Structures are given as structure tokens and as C-alpha cells.
User: What shape does this take?
Amino acid sequence: MQNKLYIITGHYGSGKTEFAVNFALQLAQAGGSVTLADLDIVNPYFCSRERKAELEAAEVRTILPSKGHGDLPALNPALLAMFEAGGVGVMDVGGDAAGARVLGRFAARIAAVPHELYCVLNFNRPETATPEQALRYLREIEGSSKLRVTGLVNNTHLCTETTAEDVLRGAALARETAALAGLPLVYHAVERGLAAQLNSMEGELFLMDIYMKKPWE
Amino acid sequence: MKELWKGNEAVAEAAMRAGCRYFFGYPITPQNEIPEYLAKHMPARGGVFVQAESEIAAINMIYGASGAGARVMTSSSSPGISLKQEGITYLACAELPAVIVNMMRGGPGLGNIAPSQADYYQATRGGGNGDYRTIVLAPASIQEAADFTQEAFDLADVYRMPVIVLADGTIGQMMEAIEWRTPPRRELPAKEWATNGHRGERPHNIINSLFLDVADCEEQNCRLQERYELIAERETRYEEYMAEDAEVLFVAYGTSARLARAAVLKLRAQGVKAGLFRPITLWPFPEVALHARAAMPSMKAVIAAEMSTGQMIDDVKLAVNGIRPVYLVGRSGGAMPMPMELVELALEVLA
Assistant: This one.
């Protein structure tokens, strides 16, 4: 497996964290030496750090924000090792341009290593319901991260109420967005249970187990 | 078509859909997406967003704008809501409509940013000084957060009083699929009391919460109490789930009700007749309905589940009035009454 950094960005609620956690676990399952870094310091709940136990049980190394005394967690300086040590890294970045700003200070370091910067898209979110809106968010993320997005992930979902129709509708809109942005559409991320209904869909399916559950799920 | 909304954003959008064009607030986690969303969208819809210099300033801006007849909202989380209490009691006495959203976090004090339901007493007993109440709506889903926020504005206008939407950080932060719908139509009285300029056509209106004369002050109190009785009669709301044949009844609201519902399903899967009683209005508390349910011959025990060390349980005990034993699963500081814990206690009290 090639040493590479996979940086996962997107709008709030796009499902970045679910994708990042699944992506790291599947890379590890494929035999990679994988590190997942939680760079989300803008969102207080539903972050990949909550899945530390599952990740470490699957031998994914985690680099998590240190717990501050205030409302905001702080970046873990250990994440600098991701630019030095090789291996496969997955960075779960906070939502929107605000969340992606943390990447800006590492932009030169990231640019110097093999990397992919994925932008996760969910067309069921009201502020990214059209390709034009999604592209605007993508450009804002590029602006604050000082990096270029290299690929798109369609993750159009409604949490537990997602249907195959949502995925298909999102796929069409994601293709339009990819054409507008001149970027490859890398995956259609879907919950494993929906896979059978999406056999004939064009493009690569990325099958996910749901880890970012609500407390009663 | 359904859309995926975060609770805080849904509350903010719902306010604008209900015609709120004035929001005054001050940031605090875990409700920051409310002011953030309104700062972004309110100006484009012809409204005013002000980040005040403090929570106290914000609630007094609410007082002023409401006095002028506008639909107004402020939002905060637990310690910030404590700061607003002076303003809320003034609003209550001056009979001013306003919507106040509390996305509760761990306490007491500054506590933490984790979800909590420990402001139950504060919300349901007035919170500030004096004999007053606020209507308290407790959403248990993002759909309800959107619906109840819209409805809160109508309730506030109909009864001329502050209405609290009481949820916790989980509801604020989580996302669920929702549909936008308009609340049931209510007859809204004209705001003849508003200080919006008499134009030489009527006497001055005065907004006031000072009644120096004893008789006047008591008269104002009686006026308010009569209204509260009317509200208790007309606006009390609750929902039941599998309660018709229950032997053990969970009573829980908001996030705790979602957890208790999961416990009911687990118990039913084991053949245990469990049910859920979910107060939707925390004030007025649905005491008559809860008493009737608890009095059912099949009922053996009632379990209050809450994210506090035991606040709602007082209302549960008042309603049950000693006819059934009442137990508590009360977690605090960000911890939750998890379904397994509820299942274990239910099995224990039925054994």
C-alpha cells in the first residue's frame, strides 16, 4: 500500500467523519499501517475521537485533539509525525471552510507529500443541495486550507432514513459537480445494507458500516 | 422532500419561518449554530441579528423589541440562560411574548459542553424571581425542534408570555431528516399593547413590570395565574408509546425519551410489558394523563429517566401521588440514562 495522506473535508453534516472512520478501518484491513488524525476542532459532538476504541481495536493508530480546559479542543502536535513517518494517514477535518482552516498552517507540509484531499458531498443538506452550492463550499474549503481538492465523494444520505433513491439522486448531482469542478468523482459512499439495490450504478461504491451512531441507536 | 438538518440550524431556520426577524444573543457551546446560522441568513431575509455584549444585554434587547411588537428570539445554553433570568421574569411580568431556546449543557456552574437536562427546575418553576411560569416545550427530535420552535412564537403571542424551547446539546448537535411544515393555525390577537408609536390616535402604551401598590401587584399576579390555569387546561401535551398494557412505565422527555424508547423495545423483545410516557410540555406538566396511566390496574412501577440527578421526578411523584412506586435513573454531567441501565432497573423492580 502506497504511503499517502488522505484528507477528508466537506460541509457540516456531509458525513466526513463516517467516511473517514470507515476509510481508515478498510485501509487497515487491507494491510496498511494506518493512522487516523482527528483535526475537527470546530464541532463539539459526533467526532471521530468518539470511536477511538473501535479504531485502536482494528490497529488504526489515532492522533486525537488534546482536551483543553475551555470549550475548544486543541490540535495534537503528534500529528506532525504524519508528514515524516510514512505509512497511510487519514485526516478527519472539521466542517466547512472554518473547519478546514486548520489545514492552512500545514499546507506546505501536505503539498510536499503524496496526498489526496477529498471533499465529501451530501445533497440532502439544505446548504449544499445543488452542484453550484456544493462547488461554492468546495472553493471556500480550498481557500481556507490553502490546498486544492483532488477528488469528490458522493455521500448523499439522510442518516437512518437513507434510501437507494437518495444515493442515485446524489450520484447524478455529484457527477454534475465533478464536471463543474473538473475533478474526479472517486466514490459513492453508502451504508452496506443499500449495496444490493445499487449494483448497476455507475462509479465505485464505498461500502460503510455506521459507526457515528446516536446514543439510542 | 426530506432534508438533513442539524438541530441548532433547524431551530434557527424555524424561527425565521415563523416570522422572527429579530435575534439577539451571545455565543455559547453547544448552541452556537443558532446564532451562526442567523448571522448568516437573517440579513438576507430583512431581519436583524445582533451579537450582544452579554446574555444580559441580549435578553433586555428582547424585552425592548418584544415591547415594540416584534417577534423575537434569543438562545443560549445553561449558564447563559441563568444570566438571562432577570430579563425573563421582567418579560413574564410585563406580559411580553418571546421565544427563548436553551440547549442545555452540563452543570452546575460552567460545567461542560456535554448534553444535560439539569435546567428542568429552572425552566419549569419560572427561573427568576416572583410567581410566574413559562410554557416549556421539550422536543425529542429535530422534526420537533423545527415544529415546536415555530409553534413557540404563536404560543408566546396568544398568551403574551415567554416560551422556552428546552432541549439538550444532543438535540442541538445531532442531525436528522425532517420535513418543513407549518404549525396548526391559531387566532393571533392584535398587539394593541405594543409601544410602536401612538400616531396621535390612542393613549400611550406603557410596558412595565413595576407595581409599587400592593393591590396592583397582587392583581397583576392574579391575572397571570388565571392565564396559567387556562394554559394548563388547553396546552398540556404528551405522547405515549406502548403504554396501554404496560406494567412498568418510563417517564422521560427529550433525549432521555429517545433512550427510554429504546429500552421499551428491548424489554418488549424479552416479553416485558414496558411503556413510555413522554411529557412534551414540561410546564404545564401532563399530570392528569400521567396519573391516569399510572393508575391503570396492570401498572406496577414508574421509572423517571433524566439527564439530571432527579428534577423531573418531582413532577412525576406529584402526578403519581403515591399510588405506584417511582424510581429514578438520573445521570448528570454529560452522562445519559442508557437503555441497558433502564432495562436492568425495570427488571429489578418487576422481580
Q: What stands out?
A: Chain A has a mean pLDDT of 94.
